[in-house]
Amino acid sequence: MDFLGVLEVKGRPEWKCPLFTIGTARKIWADSSECQQLLSVFQDICERFAILLSADKTEGPVMVLAFLGIEIDTVAMVFWLPSDKLARQLSLVCLAKGAKKLQLKQLQSLLGHLVFACRVIRMGRAFYRYPAMVWIIEDFLIYWAARRAEVRSYGKNSGFTYNLARILWLGLCGLRWQQVLPECLLLQSHVSGPIILILHAGRKDVGYTRSVYLISAIKRDIAQCYAVYTNLVLIWLEIVPHLLWAREIPDPGWNASVAKLKHQVAKFVRQIGGFVMCHKHLEGTNDDLLRPHGLQLNDIGLDIFNLGLQRRKPLLNTSISNCENVRNIISKMPLKSVKTNDFKRFVNELRHCPWQYNESEHNRLKLALGNCCNARHMLVVTQDNAPLGQKLKYETNPGKKIAITKEIFRMLPKISPFLRKPFKTCAVVGNGGILQNSLCGEDIDRMDFVFRLNLPPLKLAKDVGTKTHLISANPSILVEKFGRLYGRRKHFIDLVKDYGSAMIILPAFSYVDNTDVSFRVLYSVEDFDLENKVVFFHPEYLKNLSSHWKKMGVKARRLSSGSMLVSAASELCNKVTLYGFWPFPRDPEGNVIPHHYYDNIHPKPGFHSMPDEFYIYTKMHSKGALYLQVGKC
Question: 54, 59, 303, 402: which one has the fewest Cβ atoms less than 10 Å from its Cβ?
């Protein structure tokens, strides 16, 4: 009989008991008489119950001992190979390296010793049988999902061939969150670490652990997973509701706790470059998808769950094959040599690659824009950068100037509204048709600061959100849709009210014709006592920004409003996410989409260079300077 234990004497921390062993082990060092007394008590108990112990194989108590060929140090909390075994390992490896050929027995002996060494040394890639490992860890739901997958056509490996990936399902009944990381580490001692880790846990903790502690523990352990497993792609599965939860946990605040958990963990996972998978088809009234007792999904529910997992198949295909190649191609490909079809293919592959924020790249981008343009001080015309009596040069016609009169000076803010600390998270929301059915509204509204372009309608809140802090207004839209605001202005005012107290920014000093209609926007806001502030792009800022983008390869008569606000956001925010930027008539899946999510009116041909600008955004995304959201959120 072999026995291994650690005893601690309560109230006597200095008498933390050493290991003692009954079985095949050798003594290395003994400790206090207190632990010897405890060992004697144990031996007396064994004798009373007629359990025979071998005196020659009983050693201890000790703090360090060799057990089953491995030395264990309970003080340093480490395991290592005994020196004689390590020397034997090295001699066998050196013999194999120097030999031209090996006999089968020699090879078997070498492999046997190396496998034994893997008990204390993490297994290397030389023993990695499969190109990729996918771990799916959850409570009993995963157990039933795995059993259901076995009888379906896609099989337990979810349709992947075994030379591409191996999916490992780990479903543990009653899994609590504190068990997740230890289970991962234990699993790694038997198989290679995951390329993709899919987590669906925490359900059993809601209602038993305070939300703030549970959310903190989940964030800490997820961050630890990234530290343990290199190049990890993490997918967080949001909690699947069950009928009997309300009966199990009668607290009326439980639903609020679940919503808080889902929101905060999902936000954290996205911020560190992971993915979040919702179960829209399993939410709401889902009685037909549950077993009679209401605690588990039935076969139909499990099929829906498994098919949802298979939607992430492109993520695996890309992540294990050519993500780095795609990033290198996009970051190094000259703009002139880009072919549209190739570029769309690269972008489609890149959007399935794991993305991680690169602070150094973002700071490099912020520094370049700050040196050329300085949005914090020069984005808008202020009384500080355009004093009374100064003559401003128009952006597109430097020969034309406008004097800062008392009336114009009154319109201007005293100082720049962007001198405060940078915003933590920002969204720049374009108007591309790619936003239709994107379900990005919630993600957009979670941002600290939201930029929008050219007075778009917010009727598709689930796709585009409603939060707005700064919105641009193109004078051409004011001319075409609102008749330069000469006539009735109710339609314009109703539209502006949808943006709350958002700041409205206009290029009043880009063209001479823009000035009058831009001023009329400010007068209309004042006449109707709206909360909005109206500001004007500084012509010097736009001129310098245009030169900067031309150096990056964008050749256009004029920058789009999108590129202006993306540049400003890159300076004013720590993390930037772009939504609704897609300059092609078909989405990544090949479906025809309108030019805007609310209409199909195209800009004048040759005026802007949207594909070139989008290419620059893609390069920034591939470097981690900002995140470009393409497709559904």
Answer: 54
If asked whether residues 91 and 10 sit together in one domain, one would say: no
**CATH code at position 610:** 3.90.1480.20
- Tens of pLDDT, residue by residue over 506-565, are 999 999 999 999 999 999 999 999 999 999 999 999 999 999 988 887 777 788 889 999
Using DSSP's 3-state secondary structure scheme, residue 627 falls into strand
433 is a domain residue: yes
Is 608 known to be catalytic? yes
Which position has the token pair 């999510």? 597
Catalytic residue among 242, 362, 608, 621: 608
The Cα 92–Cα 64 span in angstroms is 27
Cα(127)–Cα(123) distance, integer angstroms: 7
Residue 56 shares a structural domain with residue 97: no
Q: d(Cα 59, Cα 61) in Å, to the nearest integer?
A: 7
pLDDT digits (tens, 9 = 90+) for 319-335: 444 577 777 777 766 65
Domain that holds residue 47: 3-80
Q: In the chain, how many domains are there?
A: 4
Given a contact cutoff of 8 angstroms between Cβ atoms, the answer to whether 462 and 437 are in contact is: no
Tokens of 235: 């997918």
Q: Which is nearest to 470 in space by CA: 596, 549, 558, 569?
A: 569
Q: Indicate whether 396 belongs to any domain.
A: no
- CA dist 581 and 223 (Å) reads 30
Same domain, 261 and 138: yes
430 with 500, same domain?
yes
Going from the C-alpha of 631 to that of each of 39, 269, 457, the distances in angstroms are 65, 18, 20
Q: Which helix (H) or strand (E) holds 236?
A: strand 233-237
On whether both 114 and 137 belong to a single domain, the answer is no
Q: Give rounded-to-5 percent helix, strand, coil for the chain.
A: 45, 15, 40
Paired with 425 in beta bridges are 575
**Low-confidence residues of the chain: pLDDT under 50:** 1-31, 123-132, 162-163, 242-250, 314, 316-321
